[in-house]
Amino acid sequence: MSPTLVLANDFAQLWDTLEGPALAAMQRVGRSGWFILGKEVQAFESSLGKAWGLNHAVGCANGMDAIEISLRAGGLPVGARVLTTPLSAFATTGAILRAGGVPQFIDTDERGLMDLQLLESALQADSTLRWVVPVHLYGQCLNLTTLARLRDTYKLKIMEDCAQSIGATWLGKPCGSVGIAAATSFYPTKNLGAMGDGGALLTNDASLAAAARCWRDYGQSAKYVHALAGLNSRLDELQAAILLDAVLPLWGKFTHRRQAIAAFYRAHLHHPHLTCLPVAAAEISVAHLFPVIVRGSRQAFLAHLQAHHIQAATHYPSLIPDQPALALTGLHLPVARHLAAHVVSLPIHPFLTDVELQRVVSACHAWDAE
Ligand SMILES: *Cc1c(COP(=O)(O)O)cnc(C)c1O
């Protein structure tokens, strides 16, 4: 008999855990007869803002829309260049394009995050650059002290992509608190996952929040008054109710388990061809993903894990500018390109057991890279 599969995500166990409160939430919404932008969305927005430490949360249809709406509500001029990272979900750059921006890519550092020294060089070289969309990738947190200094020195408008990093901090400050807004996603695999699509933007700027509420709802400033040519990007009552009653109460526990798994990998994974990403002492990561850098054939390592019944993935196998939709091939982005060619994400999710974790580490150790 072959061993059970070590999953990258375990949605069956997730449902076992959420079933009671999720069904109750569905029943409440069903009985209310109110399905879009109502009490549930308001209550969830308020709880999310409090949990995050930002004053206003605005629910949207998904994370990509949350980025686009943040940029639009923040006043991104059409055609403005937006400095961003080449190593992320395509949605980061996709949202910049949808908002009318022109992405310009800054290489990453060895943690896979936008290299803030290179960012500063770009800002020094061209004083017209104002807009920056960094990503707190893999659950990590960028150096917020440096980010805040760059914001003040160069009068930047920063929109932080926090889709993978809700709850991550730098010296106790939450990610998303330096920019004009934070955008996040409730895609099911994310640290705060809904049972479908969802997203939100968070901000301390009341007027930006008001503009975002307008943008997400056909640009309506009042019923049948369209102040803007807006989007349809609303969070469903059903998703908000499930997030509020079933998922948000477990979010802290889920995050702790992810962090414990990451700590276990760091303590026990010793293989000359596998390297964990460096950690920053000032940071608390929420361990959304756990990439290791493979020296040797990534293909062979992935095949080896598969043979040991372990689901692994690559985040991300190619850089955003290299995607056919952009085809900006050949940009000089050596660090991000090296990561894209060599990272493998090991399983990390709240239901991973200690036995499974040990199996992953043993399988890694059994890899003969020669
Ligand atoms: C998931 C993700 C998004 C997009 O979120 P969706 O809800 O899928 O639109 C954006 N940025 C990053 C870094 C992500 O991981």
SSE diagram, text form:
Layout: H1 11-32, H2 39-52, E1 56-60, H3 63-73, E2 81-84, H4 90-98, E3 102-105, H5 116-125, E4 131-133, H6 144-154, E5 157-161, E6 169-170, E7 173-174, E8 181-185, E9 199-203, H7 206-216, E10 220-222, E11 225-226, H8 237-268, E12 274-276, E13 283-284, E14 290-294, H9 298-307, H10 334-342, E15 343-346, H11 354-365
Parallel strand pairs: 2-3, 2-4, 4-5, 5-8
Antiparallel strand pairs: 1-9, 6-7, 6-13, 8-9, 10-11, 12-14, 14-15
Helix pairs in contact: 1-8, 2-8, 3-4, 3-7
Bound molecules: pyridoxal-5'-phosphate (PLP).
Outline:
The chain has 370 residues and is of the alpha/beta class. The protein is 41% helix and 15% strand.
Explain what the structure shows.
It is a single chain. Strands 1-9-8-5-4-2-3 form a 7-stranded mixed beta sheet, sandwiched between helices. A 3-stranded antiparallel beta sheet has the order 7-6-13, with no helix packed on it. Strands 12-14-15 form a 3-stranded antiparallel beta sheet. It has 11 helices and 15 strands. The longest helix has 32 residues. With 370 residues, the protein is α/β, with parallel strands linked by helices. α3 runs parallel beside α4 and α3 packs across α7. The structure holds pyridoxal-5'-phosphate.
